[in-house]
Design brief:
heterotetramer; A mainly alpha; B mainly alpha; C mainly alpha; D mainly alpha; B: mainly alpha; 3 domains; two-stranded antiparallel ribbon; 26 helices; C: two-stranded antiparallel ribbon; 22 helices; 2 strands; disordered C terminus
Amino acid sequence: MNISMADILLISPMIALFLFSLIPLTIKVLRGNVEQSPTATIVEALIGLFLTAGLLIVFGGSGKTAFNGQLVFDGLTQWMGLIAVVSAGFSMILMYENPATRGKQFSELIFLAMNSILGMLILVSAVDLITIFIGLELMSLSLYLMIAMSHEQKISKEAAIKYFVLGSFASAIFLYGVSFVFGSAGTINILDLMENASTLIKTSKVFLFGVSFISLGFCFKVSIAPFHAWTPDVYQGAPTPVTSFMATAVKTVSFAAFLRVLAMKPLIGSDNLFLVLQWFAVLTMTIGNVAALVQTNLKRTIAYSSISHSGYILVGLITAGISQNSVFAASSVVFYLLAYSLMTFGAFAIVSLIEKNENSVVQTDDLAGFAKNQPMLALCLTIFLLSLAGIPPALGFFGKFYLFSAAVSEGLLWLALWGVLNSAIGVYYYLRPIVVMYMREGDCDISDDRRFGTTVAIVTAALLIVVLGIGSGPLFEMIERSLM
Amino acid sequence: MNQQALIAILLLSPVVGFFLNGLRFRSKNYILAGTIATLAVVISFVCSVLLFLDLVGMPPEARRITANFFEWIAVDKFKVNAGFVVDQISSIMILIITGVGALIHLFSIGYMHHDKGVTKYFAYLNLFIFNMLILVLGDSLLTMFVGWEGVGLCSYLLIGFWFNDSAKAAAGMKAFITNRVGDAAFIIGMFILFMTFGTLNIHELNALAPTALEASWLGAVTLGTLMLFIGATGKSAQIPLYVWLPDAMAGPTPVSALIHAATMVTAGVYMIVRLNPLFISAPNTMMVVAIIGAATAVLAATIGLTQHDIKKVLAYSTVSQLGYMFLAVGVGAFGAGMFHLMTHAFFKALMFLGSGSVIHAMHEEQDIRKMGGLRKYLPITHATFFLGWLAIIGIPPFAGFFSKDEILWKAYSSSAGHILLWAAGVIGAALTAFYMTRLMALTFWGKSRVDKNVHPHESPISMTIPLIILGILSVIGGWVGIPHVISQYLGEVPNFWEHWLAPVIRILPLAPAEHGADHEALEWTLMSVSVGVAAISAISAYIMYTKKEGSADRVAKAFGPVYQLVNKKYLVDEAYFKGLINPLIRGSKNLWYYVDVNIIDKATYKVTDIVRGGGSFVKSLQTGNMQQYAMYIGVGVVVALSFVLMR
Amino acid sequence: MMLSALIFLPILFAIVMAFWPQKNTVRHLAFGFSIIQFILSLGMLQRFDASSAALQMVEKSVWIQRFGISYFLGIDGISVMLVMLTTFLVPIIILGSWNSIDKQVKGFHSALFILQAAMLGSFLAMDAILFYVFWELSLVPMYFIVGIWGGTRRIYATLKFFIYTMAGSMLMLLAIIFLMRLTPEVTGGNISASILDFYKLNIPFIAGDFLTPQTLLFFAFAIAFAIKVPIFPLHTWLPDAHVEAPTPGSVVLAGVMLKMGTYGFLRWVIPLFPEAAEHFAWLFVLVGVIGIIYGALVAMVQPDVKKLVAYSSVSHMGYILIGLFVMNTYGVNGALYQMLNHGISTGALFLLIGMIYERTHSREISKYGGLAGVLPHFTIAFVIVTMSSIAVPMTNGFVGEFLILLGSYAFSPIVAAFAVTGVVLGAAYMLWMVKRVFFGPKGELITNAEHDHAHALHDLSAREFAVLIPLIIMIFWMGLFPNHFMDYSKASVDHLVKNKMDYSIPMSTNTAQTGER
Amino acid sequence: MPETNIITTIGPEHYLVLSALLFSIGMAGVLLRRNLIVLLMSIELMLNAVNISFITFSHYSGKVEGQIMVFFVMTIAAAEAAVGLALAVSIFKRFKEVNIRFFEHLKG
């Protein structure tokens, strides 16, 4: 297996990313373990990300495979990779300014983050189950450490250990599945399995067993219903920038990998698995929305909301899984993930802005009076929340609209109905923060140190949501063409 | 001056009066306000006289002046425009309205001069005249209905004129809502007629009215006319919906004179006369009208016996006289109905204004038990009241005699008539004579029971002139329609009334021959019976209330409970409140409490509680213990796999 | 270009006002802008050709090619007067809320203008998704107006209002998606969301069973609009929203927002699902009658005058519903006209209640009494508007209600008989309220207002006159010369009623065509 | 080839049953044991069970990729162990406690 020049070019984004991740650390080592100014670190990191994104755009979408079929660089890789890189980049800006992550060991944090992004890129482009596993583990391991590195002493550690134990537990299950797939099909390359997966699944019980295990492993990663228990605790425990990192980038790429696995069309083969996933989707949407109603902590509310959004995305995934031209359904999933990442990032960014010190916990009622003190930021939060609730003309509405159109066109009417009902329930807890911000007197204000980066990120996200919302047509077509 | 302009001026002068007074409603200058208002109505009167003369000049068949100003509602086949018609019937009505109206305006100047809202009062009066003219002149049922509800609105404003007294305000509201019940039926009547005949224009409706009599009760014409009649009972205070008229006395007396004696209450009769071809082709409705008319006449007369407030007595007398008009119309004697309407307008307006000047003299005292012997103090009022009294009890040659007798004769002789109807009419006449004489005796004759510090004085000239004019009209008013049986002895005086209305009134198909010897004799006998009965009861009442002191009370005690019942107006008002209004309010309170609050809101709260309960259940699942989560994963895996591998 | 200007000008105004430097001149600016908007709409009306039932001033350009969703605006007889009502009421609302809105004035006026833009958008949108976007968008500014400037329980009321309407319209979204999926067979291949293609669809309908597509779609749409109208069982949000909303909020809510529901029925439900609409007409007429009687009865016993007027709105909207579903020219013309009347008379009522609330800060009817003596001009205005509200002839209310009753009689006499009781009940509760508030002995509020001269009751100020005069003029103008207004919608309504089974609006020639059809 | 019966000749099923058993023991360990370190060990156990099944499949199907995968799995298991122990050390330093029942502050 010789490594041709083409392969190198294809994985150049990853190489660039890895090299740039080393720069802050080596400078710190050269300076005799004295932390260089965080601004320098963040600038280096962002340059690295820009370079990676540029390379991804140039080389990503060619559709060729590298390392004889282990990595593929098609539209999905490009789009999902870009979403991951952009939202991770935004989250790193948050890390730069959030009290819990700023200060000492900031370059280590950046190093881990960049490597986690590297894992994501691998995960997104992998079509070989083991490569997927490698990408998954690289991403997760660096994530566990990022959570544990928070200056906040108590709950971040607990979150880290929880995420670690359950993450490893689930990846063990995932691996078990891979072994069975290898056993029954002889190969673990999705491209090879593509043709006969749906027939094989009918004949060999072992293959079905394997695929189910793999799907359940993924369900854990994207916090689908019975396996979602870790998400609220970890999202609340982790420092807000890292939570935003997890909720946007990690979830996007996990869904991308899940989509690749489902692209083998296993659901057509066994309608039991199809039914199980449908019930999981319904369960996730309901639990996410219903639990968010009774939450008082703002971060935890957004966590549950992100669970419910996983439920909506799973509906898209299932539609892609069973539809003939799955391009339409897949592009609606990609579009939704783009919208979801932007909105959730925005919400977490506002929370990170309000946190005065590393130990401060933001309750929903603490937002009282925020609109009077910060009208612009309050408006941005309102846009994020209304978009999450699916109120037109924000991006969130169109995300849901495309998703449910895809589901309806494939006949999954009852899933769409359930999704619509759940978003009606969801409206209540999306409106509560707006109620508190605008209609209650209070003195909530952002911390006094000028967090210029975060504010810029928030405003750009809000603008993107409104602009892309109105111009969602061309965006969707672009995605669909690239996935063709 | 062409006729359309005349009609325009006729209608617009009260409107101008309304605006002139309305815009400066705060000023207390009663003379200016009074003159503006009276002048406006006089102009209308002059126009109506000119129009009347034009009509007389026209050949009998073509006596119709129409003016069509603008198109009001035009949707698909439903075309109604603001059109007005002056023909035989409506010309008389506008003469009455503007004539009597002008006199009452003049009277009001004197009566209302001390009231601080006098300009507002005159503005409302002018608005009333304008609406009444629309009602009368309207060429389609809908235009008539505009006037119909407009006069209802004005009567609401005028009854509740002294609004800081909540009883008076309640009376105004009661009047409007009771009228509204009638109007609802009127609307349904209009729909029925529109659906069957495709038009609401009165002239076309009359032309389209089927000549064949409609036997069934559920026929379109019968139902339509019945609904219109229910509307008329609302407006003209007949049996079911008359309760508002006695309370309407809360308004100033000239208002009672104008609205609740001369003009508004007669609207129902006028409507039936206008649509007489339709009513004729629905004999069942005619029967209902006649029966209700007779019943109201008798019932109202009995209540009139026991009332102590001078205006209440006159109010019940009005209800009773209206009953007569409906009786006349019910038996097909449309001409007689209109005739009685005109004469009643004269003498009832006279008596109301007379009672006004009495009340004015007695400084707002209305209880006749505290009056008596006012003959000395109010000579002119007494004289004119005396003429009115003679007219109402039907003593020849006064107006009341000719019109009431005509009704009684037709109640008997007409094919739709019946002996019982005639009998009811005669009983009514007797009762009318009794309570009117009682009224005269208690207020003017007999010993004076006026308490010391009240010393009545005659009303000023501006109030007595209208009384005098109306007194004269009450006398000569009847000579317009002298029945043939009498006129043949007086040198063939033409019965102007019959000729004038003939072309517009359709005669009942099988009416018996008018002439013929035996009929004349019968007519004479019936006439003498009714006059005799009236005279006897008048004399007995005179004796009871002037000569023998205690006799009235003794009779009252003799009848005991019956007297109490009648005195309390048969407890009809209380029945309405207990049976209809209070349960309605209580019901809607429960309705609101149970349906809105308990069922609908409770249901939504239940849904939110279920959802919230689910939320707290899921929250309880998140125990925070790592192994609990691992267990969920384990269970999830086992369940999923067993389901997947099951088949 | 005219219709896009009508929608996006207010949004521009809103942005300008949001960043306007001085706080105290914002009101004047807002008033000026609303006048400009009204003049613009008059210009549109002048260009509108009333004789044709076609869709005029059409603007159609691609928005989302993949789903055939187009930025498709058009106006015809049905929506022209509702647009005029919106632009007519906004200046009056701004003038009426001159000193009742004191905090965050800039925010209020920009929310009001965005609301106006959203309402106009939903009246003009001819594309299902565009309509849905404006329909939902109108909730957000109203949510803020009630939530921020409202009364004590404003948060409960505004959340209830938002979630009620939102939940309803969610089903509609699904129905729209389903319809869009059906369009390819009609438009030759490509999916489309324009209403003209929806009209071409003939969705299977079996009278008997409930689960046929057309019935389900019909009810999905109908529920969304039923909540907005509001119809009897789904109306409990209206009294709360009205009581807690500030005066301008109540006026715009009662004046225009309820009409979005009835307009929705007329544009999106009845022509789209003709067989189902005809089959279930009896149900909606029945609910309409119940609404009339129930609304009137419950209004009678309300202690709070604003709640009384809110329930009276339920009663009036019951009339409009009957008018719509009897599906004859009288009924539909009457319903359309009654929408305008209700906007004028109930809007005026809320403005008057706002004025008296500014003086006495109480809405308890029992605390009032004898107001007529103290505030004569106010009483006259109130009585005139009451007359219009209870449909006395010569006022606008009568024409609309008479036509609706006539239409309902043609539908079935029993319905007319019950509906006509609403006329009596309406008079009952309004006049009883007028008696208790204005006539009779002086109430406790008036007596203690007279004692301390700090806030003695002063009669209508010049501004308040300026607010009421146009409304009173409209009451009589629309009462005496209804044709000046009805002529605009007659052609379209006849077209709708005549061929309601296979209904489609022809495109008129004077379309400002941008982009392909 | 003598007739093979299930008891005497060891076929792929035996190894798979072994790996399944090991896997479930590991899972039970994660679910039941309180001590953090034992938890890490149970996870390692599960991963090794997977290795066994990989090798079984690769041996009996003759494809060598299985064994290559085992290397990948082992390296990643090692990395995981390293990270896990690092976290355990930092927690112990802070909480002075390894019993996971003390880490239940994040709930609800």
